[in-house]
Amino acid sequence: GAGVSQSPSNKVTEKGKDVELRCDPISGHTALYWYRQRLGQGLEFLIYFQGNSAPDKSGLPSDRFSAERTGESVSTLTIQRTQQEDSAVYLCASSLLRGGNTEAFFGQGTRLTVV
Amino acid sequence: GDSVTQMEGPVTLSEEAFLTINCTYTATGYPSLFWYVQYPGEGLQLLLKATKADDKGSNKGFEATYRKETTSFHLEKGSVQVSDSAVYFCALIPGYGGSQGNLIFGKGTKLSVKP
């Protein structure tokens, strides 16, 4: 597509429920990032995929968080047993290459509210 | 570890005023530096970048110079417009000798420009 697409744009869930967030990267982009942005905070790195390499999961805050990516296409971020502290905007970005000087293109994010 | 610190907001200016948003960084190696902007209701987009010391990034009247001696990358614009109202994020990608090449963000500075 023309840009990075994320769905849903907003999600309200009850504490303890599982949620799944989706990211469609720009076609041909090998790298895909997930970030979390809490209210009034910067962007917190969660996980990174690059081609067929093992993902960099160093930013995932707990084992309740997991992510998958099929080849170089769609990625899903799953949060199990959601907690109120998980409330944030979850941003996805894609780029042609990791690191270096390559621009990362961002989606509009999924606003998650855990009640 | 690598980090970015930018001035707290919000910043409120009148149209045609001079803008400075301070950004300093901590990084091992030689990072690449970026300013991203998030307009209301839109996703993050790259505003400008600089990849080595003394480089100046510029776009849409905004400028920032990579100052290694002061570890700074301050954003400036000589005459702001109402349409510049947005949240601005300073970011870096650690370079050679640094940590993993993830895009690390500051907390963001909200700019409001009044007519």
Low-confidence stretches of chain B at least 5 residues in length (pLDDT < 50)?
97-101
| Biggest sheet features of chain A | 6 strands, mixed
Most extensive chain interface and residues per partner: A-B, 26 and 24 residues
Unreliable stretches of chain A (pLDDT < 50, length at least 5) are: none
Mean pLDDT of chain B: 90
Tell me the span between the first and last alpha carbons of chain A. 33 Å
Total E-strand runs of chain A: 10
Q: End-to-end span of chain B in angstroms?
A: 41 Å
Strand content of chain B: over 45%
The average pLDDT value of chain A, as a whole number, equals: 90
Q: Fraction of residues of chain B in helices?
A: under 10%
Query: How big a fraction of the residues of chain A is strand?
Result: over 45%
Which oligomeric form is depicted?
heterodimer
Number of strands of chain B: 12
Question: What is the overall silhouette of chain A?
Answer: globular
Helix-strand pattern of chain A: EEEEEEEEEE
User: H/E element string of chain B?
Assistant: EEEEEEEEEEEE
Number of helices of chain A: 0
Could you characterize what this model shows?
- The complex is a heterodimer of chains A (about 120) and B (about 120).
- Chain A is mostly beta strands.
- Chain A has strands at about 5, 10-15, 20-25, 30-35, 45-50, 65-70, 75-80, 90-95, 105, 110-115.
- In chain A, the strands form 2 sheets. In chain A, strands 2, 4, 5, 8, 9 and 10 form a 6-stranded mixed β-sheet that branches.
- Chain A starts with a strand and ends with a strand.
- Chain B is mainly beta.
- Chain B is built from no helices and 12 strands.
